[in-house]
Amino acid sequence: MIGFNYVSYAQDVIFAPGALSRLRESLERFGWQRLMLCTSHSMRAEGQLNKIASILGEGLVAIFDQIRPHVQDVQARDAIALALEKDVDAILGMGGGSPIGMAKAIGFQLNLPIIAIPTTYAGSEMTPVYGITHTDEDPPRKVTVNDPKIVPSLVIYDPELTLGLPPTLTASTGINALAHCIEALYSKTHNPLSTAAAVEGVRHIHHALLRCFQNGQNVEARTEMLLGSHLAGCSLASVSMGLHHGLCHVLGGAANVPHGIANGIILPHAIRFNVDATQLILAADSMGIAVNGHHSTEVIEGLRQNIYELIRQMNLPQRLREVGVSESDLPRLAEIAFHNRTVQNNPRPITDVTQLESLLREAW
Ligand code: NAD
User: Is the CB of 303 under 6 A from ligand 1?
Assistant: First the structure.
């Protein structure tokens, strides 16, 4: 029997090569006049910051461009103080999930609308969620805030802004997008729209990601990959995540593993743990894996191997030991993960911390 419950959001989404040129007319439509831009240092180096500044002119009244990964609470406090001082009326996050997360953190505290211009494939622009890292705890802990008011009101996808995304970030944030689709498919709260978006997301990501990695200047592949990440973000927006995303947050907050890198290491293990989730057959089908006449476990193992191979071809780390996690950290990380809400939301119940410790050992 079918039954579902999800929340959808009002967002103005513009997607096209060159779409950045439509930013000004969109702002006029919304009536925002005093913008604060959140971005990371490399956006200045890439010349993107100058582009935005010339489009916005006097409408850009504040810039916070030193955003570090994983939205740190101390930085959020400084950014909020700047927004108040400059009396801004909207926050623009441009870059990856970190600047967009920072824009959400400010918008949440000050009740301001958010504009997102993504330049990676992380997908935060479509969701009502951000993660913030409490740096005064030992180890630092990343917690998520979920509120409909932080869904960006305006999202501009311009594939031309992604041409300079370096191969490793292309690969790692692309795998993050793939992971959104995988977890959306087996989510406890999956619904017809999240499933449709996830299935199409997997198809586009599978077709485009490796080509973007091999040639970042390929506008056609970049456009298809950004479309895949948009669909991945759509699927993520209306469902709750599980083991995979929960573990990546723990590794980001407590072990400072970059989010996309954690995704590449954990995803094959999360799929193996959830091998009974038959919805994953849809992802295998989207990747062109033979499905008919095969047992679901065999099909899902094929999906896992395909993804593992894709991660290997893009030279991403495949083990926690390669990214600064020591073996002695594993019990502590497993313990933190055991108490993580998102981990505990996994469709296959996690009843004992040793389940997590053995998964982390396999990934180590
Ligand atoms: P990021 O935002 O930390 O960016 C990583 C690096 O990429 C930065 O150095 C940045 O300057 C650089 N960069 C970004 N775009 C570039 C471009 N076009 N060219 C050159 N360099 C570029 O990384 P991310 O993986 O995009 O985001 C990760 C963060 O987002 C994590 O904190 C994660 O938890 C969060 N996230 C949130 C959601 C959500 O729904 N809220 C979804 C996915 C990720």
Answer: no
Ligand 1 pocket member 26 (CB < 6 A): no
Euclidean distance between CA atoms 361 and 241, whole angstroms: 22
Q: Is the shortest distance between the CB of 253 and ligand 1 below 6 Å?
A: no
pLDDT tens sequence across 246-289: 999 999 989 999 999 999 999 999 999 999 999 999 999 999 99
- What is the three-class DSSP state of 154? strand
Nearest-angstrom CA–CA distance, 89 and 324: 41
Global confidence as pTM: 0.96
Q: How far is the CA of 4 from the centre of ligand 1 (A)?
A: 31
CA 344, CA 302: separation in Å to the nearest integer? 26
pLDDT tens digits for range 202-220: 999 999 999 999 999 999 9
Cα–Cα nearest to 142, from 340, 328, 319, 330:
340
Order of strands across the sheet that contains 12-15: 12-15, 154-157, 114-118, 90-95, 35-38, 60-64
CA 126 vs. chain centroid, Å, equals 10
